[in-house]
Structure formats: structure tokens, C-alpha cells
Amino acid sequence: MKVEAITLRELRMPLKYFFETSFGRTESRRVLLVTAHCEGVEGWAECVAVEGPFFSYEWSETAWATIRDFLAPLLVGTNLEQAQDVAALMSRVRGHNMAKAALENALWDAEARQKQQPLWKLLGGTLTEIACGVSIGIQDSHDQLMEKIDTELAAGYQRIKVKVKPGWDLEILTKIRKRWPNILLSCDANSAYRLTDLDHLRKFDDFNLLMIEQPLWDDDIFQHAKLQRELKTPLCLDESIRQRRDAEQAIELGACRIINIKVGRVGGFTEAIAVHDLCQRQGIPVWCGGMLETGIGRAHNIALSTLPNFRLPGDVSASKRYWEEDIVEPEIEVTSRGTIQVRDEPGSRYKIKKDLIQKLTVRMETIRRRTASV
Ligand code: OSB
Ligand code: MG
Fold first, then answer.
1. For a disulfide at 137, which of 19, 62, 129, 292, Cβ 3.0-4.6 Å?
2. Which of 135, 217, 218, 316 has most ligand 1 atoms within 8 Å of its beta carbon, as the pocket-test mutant?
């Protein structure tokens, strides 16, 4: 598989509803798409870096510049046996996992298209129906949140995750549990608490939560291990797990009992599979996280979620929760059982809506092999 060129595109796409976490509110996405051109086959992927360096240090501009100036030039002109081999070529660049993942995943996509195989099978997936949950952001009022939960439960989603932060936590969890005593419920703090909040965090044990996601520092494992020893509720790590080694450390230290895998955060499918396999061996369930993706990133999350240790509902939900019109066809839909079915017949892949993408594109650049200068 020869990598002839890489195209970068930035799209502006307003979200249907704002999405607010402890680190801020997003109303509109800057979507970064990567296309790998490989001998007549195009592979597509989405870079999940967001609009500012708040979830992680990576954001739209660092991803664009890192891909354009460093990562894509390492790849164009190379001849790869398989997409899996690409991580080694990019390892000279430290960090920038989301940028790397976009390139690697575009090549997995190209490889699947070239082999005319569903991507999920190429990844080693076995599940044909995946369980879906929703992540619901901080709202302007408690009533608004209750209404959103009501809507998502009616749609069939199997798990509700609410974003929490100091001042938007115990009171709303109390209200939710009062109205829905038995639903699968979890919360995600996106690093909004400190170990000095221990007495406060202990109160989360009253709500029979499936998990508390990333309560402490975004780069921490050690302090989470201390916290986990003090709580009954399982902790789940998101931000802290950037590679398989982090998962190994977290599991061995007892920093969490569940891991959220985001393929962008760990640098691509190869590392995501490595985290998955390690967790499976260690008896740690995983689930697939989301980053407000369009259908392109979403389709990749779905493919990853077919691996057997994705045993808990992921933040993988329908296109229509985010977009007036998604950039893939058919849009991603969720059954009334709160699942997404993956199909296996040839031609069952989502089609890319190139005309719509063209309309939404605000910048585009193609990186080709540099010709020797004179
Ligand atoms: O922490 O999981 C997170 C979105 C942006 C950044 C971080 C997170 C999220 C979500 C959204 O929770 C999940 C989704 O619906 O895509
Ligand atoms: Mg999270």
C-alpha cells in the first residue's frame, strides 16, 4: 500500500445543541478530516482534537500543523505492508496522539477498502451489535438535564452518563436517582476534583453509579489509585490513558476498575487494540469513548467497539444527536434497544458525502512527496 499523498481538510459544523463539560462549552466543531491517497484507494479518518487545549494539550491547530509539517511527510512516498506498521514510522514525534491516530486510522480505512473487507473485521472485531449510551453535558438548568435524560431513555439508550463538576453534582445526581432509581448511570468529571475533595467524593457512593470517570488530574494515575481505595464506586480513566503502558500502570496500581478507550487519545487503532487486549487479559471491562465526532470518526468508533472486551455501553450514539446533517450516508442510527448493528456484506460501509464536505470545508491542503530541490 503506497501512500501517495495526504489531504487535510477543516470543516466548520455547528452542533445541534451545545455540549458543556467541566472544562467548557462547545457550540460548533472544527472538524479535521484526513484522507490518505493510496494507489487509487482513499482512506478517510477524523482527527478528534477539539477547539482548544482543554481536554488535552492537542487542539485543532496543533493537530493540523503537526500532521502537515512532521507526520504526513514521514509517510508520503512510503510503501506499507499494512496500516499497523505506520505507528513505528511516526514514533519519532513525541505525543500528538490524536494527530497520529488520524493518519493511522485513515490508512486502516484504506487497507479495509483495498481488501474489500469491513473495517471491524480487519480490526479483529467479533460483536455484531454494540451497546450504546449517551454522554449528556452540563445544562443551563436541572430541568433541562432531566428532560434530556428522559428523551434519551425513551430513545432506548442503555446507559446515561452525565457531566459533573463542583456545584453541578450531588444535587442533580440525587434528582436523577429519585426519578430513575434503576437506570445504568455514570458521571464524568473531566478532572474537576482534587484529592482534597475526598469527603465530597465519598458522597458519590450513595448513587449506585456504574462508574465515576476521570475525577482527578488529567495526567494522573497515582492519586486515582489512592482515591479508588477510598470509594466503593468503580473509577474509570479516560484522559490519563494515552497508551497501553498507562493502562498497565493504572491496573497494577488499582487506579481504576474500568477503562474508556478513545482511539484518538491513544494514537490509533493499533494502540487501542493493545489497550483492549491488555484489559481483557486483566479482567478490566472497557468501553468506547466519544469526542463529538461526525459520522467518519463515529464509524471508526463503532468498528473498534466490536472487539469482545467492549463489555459496557459506549459513548457511541446516533448522528442526529449532534448534527442537522451528517457527512456520511446512511447516518448512524441506533435501534430502539439502544444498539448499533454492524453489517458484514460488501458495500455496507458508510458512504462519504463529498459534496457536503466540500461545502463545509474552510481550508484544505494536500501533502505530497517533496521533490528534490535544485
Ligand atoms: O470526556 O468523554 C469525554 C466530549 C469531548 C471531550 C471529552 C469527552 C466528551 C464526551 C462526549 O463525553 C462523548 C460524545 O458524545 O461524543
Ligand atoms: Mg471522559
1. 19
2. 135
